[in-house]
Amino acid sequence: MKEKLFYFDDDHYKGISVLQDYYGKRLKTSNSPKPELQWYIRKRLEQLKLFKGRQRYNPREQEMLNRMRDEYYYTNKKKLRSNKTTSF
Predict the structure, then answer these.
(1) Looking at beta carbons, which pairs linking 21-30 to residues 24 or more positions away fall under 8 Å?
(2) Among candidates 41, 54, 44, 73, which has minimal Cα distance to 13?
(3) Which residues contact 44 (CB under 8 A, 6 or more apart)?
(4) pLDDT tens for each residue of 31-55
């Protein structure tokens, strides 16, 4: 059976770019002496570059992208909350 593929649209490219910026900044500002953290971040950047180049992803890769997105949201939760505007 052929695996289902999802193809990119403009929003996907924007999202991938945001994640690449996020992981790039994490790598640049990482003071961790743990090589496994550096490896983890580099691996994520490689995967994002691959997805962007192929312009498609399968369901397993979709789960990976969703986990990356969740990690981004979780780490930036305070930043995102402070940027929200509420009207009363």
Answers:
(1) 22/72, 22/75, 22/76, 23/48, 23/68
(2) 54
(3) 19, 23, 68
(4) 766 888 889 999 999 999 999 999 9
